[in-house]
Amino acid sequence: MSMSVYVPQYQHDIFVSYAQIDDQALIGADKGWVTTLINGLKIKLGQKLGRADAFSLWMDSEAQGNNPVTPETLKSLESAATMVLILSPGYIESQLCQLELDTFINKVGISAGRVFIIEHDEMEIDERPEGLKDLLGYKFWLRDDTGRIHTLATPQPHPEEREYYQRLDDLAHQLADKLKALKKEAKTIDKPPEVLTNSEISPKNTVFIAKVTADLEERRNEVIRYLDQQGMHILPNKEYSLTTIKQELEEDLAKSCLFVQLLSEKIDPFFNYPQFQYECAQAAQLPVLQWREPALDLQPIQDSVNRALLQGSTVIVTELVDFQELVFKNIQPKKEKPASLNTQGTWVFINVAREDRALGEQIKEFLEAESIDYSLPLEMTAETSPTEIREDLEENLLACDAVIVPYHKTPVKKIRQYLIQCRRMQPRREQPLKVVAIFDQPWADKPSINMALCQVQVLECPTLQIETCLPQFIRILKT
User: Fold this and answer.
1) Contact, 133 vs 105, CB < 8 A?
2) 71 vs 58, 59, 99, 165, CA distance in Å?
3) Is the dihedral of CA 400, 405, 410, 414 positive or negative?
4) Element of type H or E holding 162
5) Structure confidence at residue 321 as a pLDDT band (50, 70, 90)
6) Confidence band for 247, pLDDT divided at 50, 70 and 90
7) Which of 307, 335, 350, 406 has the most CB atoms around it within 10 Å of its CB?
8) Whether 425 and 437 share a structural domain
9) 449 and 416 in contact (C-beta within 8 Å)?
10) Per-residue pLDDT tens over the stretch 76-127
11) Cβ-count burial 11-26 (b if 16+ within 10 Å, e if not)
């Protein structure tokens, strides 16, 4: 099948640069690792561009380690729109590969976003060629619990090897987007392709997604994919040098509107990078949203610093898909809505537990849109004591006009305790509470609260669209 060129003014859309040693077929494999990956990339890319023959990809099937570059290779390289390179020790040792890379970078520039790195193995920054030190790659390897690196799809892909196919899809998605952008730019006659510089990227739609421990790498990729689909710009978009890591990190934080971090119990004993990134975000006074698994048991964690990080006031304990939506909502500009109901001066205390913090944030946004005052409980941090938290809770229960208690994943015992606290505070109040509402999101086998208090209203919200039942709460406040 003859291949057409997708990007005008080029003979090839993609040039594949690799070391021949990485494409030798192992026992049990029909084809080499590189050939197998590129064949999969062709299929994925064809699906995203609409046709299998929509683009032209050039790959030298007889690439040789340090043999002289052929005229055909040089011609194909100089007439290619993008480069896909397989980074490995073999690539580093190949003079031919280095020549191909230097030739392409000299032609298009390193900041043009046209070089796509596939990491066959883990490569330290100082091991990489100079032109690749700042570029992020697609990691086609995993680190096991012993610290050993394993290349995905070795000797060949397995149908259940989810990480391999997901990263292949990520690569195809980004490559297709780049080819579309280059094609659009090429339609303007006599106008060179534009490169989006850092100064042209607005902080309003830029999110800093902190680097994570190896066990959360795929989860971080999920968040990046979600926000990328929403049109967000993601930082960091390069690898930091160890000698200038703090400076580069602070520069990227200054370009961002939100710091997002996924946390687990695992840390490097020599350098707690999650904590380091978090402290830099705090110093930059950047809004912070952090996440951890609801099933994560904090009891066995012995490192006090990591435990404190996992228990911070900005940590959301929820499913990752809910956290992603919360992140996106925090980036969106607030929509100004006229107050439809006369609730001016009303103060609602959202008495939410850590387990339902994401739901509490959604309720907060709804109240903000209705111009209703609100407060959330004081969270346990290194600077707060249990006494201060208890006193703050009592002050809120005494001063607010109404209480709403989110009940989705919070243990039923906590919900009962919250209701009892409201009842105990009533004699000390100057005026009775207008309403104590339980924001109840039912799910299978969810325990019943089994309490009947005259002031308590149960708002049943079967979906995550909280607007379906909160207007009822607003009407109660109005009466």
Assistant:
1) no
2) 14, 14, 13, 35
3) positive
4) helix 162-186
5) confident
6) very high
7) 406
8) yes
9) yes
10) 888 899 999 999 999 998 888 888 888 888 888 877 789 999 999 988 888 8
11) ebbbbbbbbbbbbeee
Note whether 403 and 284 are same-domain residues. Answer: no
For the CA atoms of 331, 332, 337, 342, what is the dihedral angle to 10 degrees?
-30
End-to-end alpha-carbon separation of the chain, Å? Answer: 73
The verdict on 293 and 363 lying in the same domain is: no
End-of-domain residue from the set 160, 195, 230: 195
Phi, then psi, of 116 in degrees rounded to 5: -115, 115
Residues with Cβ within 8 Å of 104's Cβ and at least 6 positions away in sequence, in order, are 15, 17, 77, 80, 83, 114, 115
Q: CB neighbours (10 Å) of residue 297?
A: 8
pLDDT tens digits, one per residue of 327-357: 888 786 655 544 444 445 789 999 998 888 8
d(CA 403, CA 54): 59
| Domain at 51, CATH number | 3.40.50.10140
Task: Note whether 166 and 69 are same-domain residues.
Answer: yes
What is the full DSSP assignment across 294-319?
TT---TT---HHHHHHHT-TTEEES-
* CATH number of the domain where residue 354 is located: 3.40.50.2300
User: Would you say 97 and 19 are in contact if contact means Cβ atoms under 8 Å apart?
Assistant: yes
Say if 376 falls within a structural domain.
yes
**Judgement on whether residues 315 and 413 belong to the same structural domain of the protein:** no
State whether 377 and 471 are in the same domain: yes
Q: Is residue 375 part of a domain?
A: yes
For residues 15 and 84, is the Cβ–Cβ distance under 8 A?
Answer: yes
Domain of residue 428: give its range: 347-478
